[in-house]
Design goal:
By secondary structure, this protein is mainly alpha-helical. Helix content is 55%, strand content 0%. It has two domains: 84 residues, Endonuclease Iii, domain 2 (Orthogonal Bundle); 103 residues, Hypothetical protein, domain 2 (Endonuclease III, domain 1), CATH 1.10.340. The chain is built from twelve helices and no strands. α1 packs across α12 and α6 packs across α7. The longest helix is centred in the middle third of the chain and has 18 residues. It is globular and about 55 Å long. The two termini are 26 Å apart.
């Protein structure tokens, strides 16, 4: 019987040549602040748009104190056309001020503190912990939630339920990279509608829960 860690490694192998999610790309600098801001930008926005916006913004401000030198309107202009760019500009400015004033310019490294920031939910907080600080955390977005249920690993109705269920069955050493692997898989193979099952390396290991049409 093929176990879940083996399935994850098979998926990782299949998507190794695919472009990883935007937030993962900005985590390569090992800077929690860049992970936090890029994650805010990525919400309800395509990766290509997120990457271009983040590059424009980070060319002028890569630290909280530098970000505070930019007006909200300037941030809006730099990150446009990401989704909800006006709201996101306010969120980025607000969290930059809180990090500067309350945390001496360093992003906090506990989920409890991160969740106190306006505009930061569990998905963002877990990405900051995992990708920014290398602290084991499972980030569940729509792809992770969908694929985990489609494969039959869990039977959950919300990302929060999925996170708790996955913590019980996924080895801790795979928590951090799980989101990157499954999001890349979900963007290229295991699509929400009409997934490429014919190309999938784990088709025989998938229960295909909720799959009505496939390619």
């Amino acid at each position: 019987m093929v176990k879940i860690p083996q399935i994850i490694r098979l998926i990782k192998k299949q998507v190794k040549d695919k472009t990883v999610p935007s937030v993962t790309q900005f985590s390569y600098d090992n800077d929690p602040y860049l992970v936090l801001v890029s994650c805010i930008l990525s919400l309800r926005t395509k990766d290509k748009t997120t990457i271009e916006a983040a590059k424009r913004l980070f060319s002028l401000a890569r630290m909280p104190r530098e970000m505070l030198k930019l007006s909200v309107k300037k941030i809006q202009k730099l990150i446009y056309p990401v989704g909800f760019y006006r709201t996101k500009a306010k969120v980025i400015s607000g969290l930059s001020k809180k990090i500067t004033d309350d945390y001496a310019g360093r992003v906090p490294s506990s989920i409890e503190e991160l969740l106190e920031f306006k505009g930061v939910g569990r998905k963002t907080a877990n990405l900051v912990l995992g990708l920014g600080y290398k602290i084991p955390a499972i980030c569940v977005d729509t792809h992770v939630h969908r694929i985990s249920n489609r494969l039959g690993w869990v039977r959950t109705k919300s990302p929060e339920e999925t996170e708790e269920a996955l913590k019980k069955i996924i080895p801790r050493d795979l928590w951090i990279e799980l989101n990157t692997i499954l999001v890349t898989f979900g963007q290229n193979i295991c699509l929400p509608v009409a997934p490429f099952c014919s190309k999938c390396s784990i088709k025989k290991l998938c229960r295909q829960k909720g799959v009505k049409n496939e390619r």
